[in-house]
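Session log. Operator J.P. requested a structure for one protein chain; no other inputs attached. Running the standard single-chain path with C-alpha cell output.
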Amino acid sequence: MQDTHTPTAPTTPARVRAVIAYARSGATTIEGQRWLQRQRTAIQAEADFKGWTVAAWTCDLGQPGTTLDRPGLKQTLAMLAEHKADALVASEEGRLARLRSHRRQLERVAQRQGWRLLTIRALRTPTEA
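Structure written below.
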C-alpha cells in the first residue's frame, strides 16, 4: 500500500456514527480464534457504549501485524474508501499494525479519505483501563 498522495484539505468526520470493526490474530489455532472473539467482544462493548453502529466486521486469522497486505484489512480499507463508515476500530494498535511506519501510513490514508482510526485501548483513560 503506497501512500504518495499529499492531501490538500484533510477531512475528518465530526462525529463517529458507524464503524468498521477489525480484529486480527497471527495464530490459526483455537487460541487464535478465541483471541479474535475477545477482540470482537471488546469492540462490540465499546460500540454499544459509544452508540456506534458496526457497519461491518472484518478479521484476519493467521496474518502477521508486520504487513499491511492482509485480506481483511484490505477489505476494511476498501469499505472505508467507499465511505461505508466513519471509522475503523480495533481493540488495540497491535491488531492494526506492529510497525509505527504502517500505523502512520494508515493514519495518512484515514486523514486523506476523511475517516478516523480508533483503538479501544487508546479511547480509555488510565482510570478506565
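Operator note: Helices lie at 30-50, 71-81, 93-96, 100-113, 120-123.
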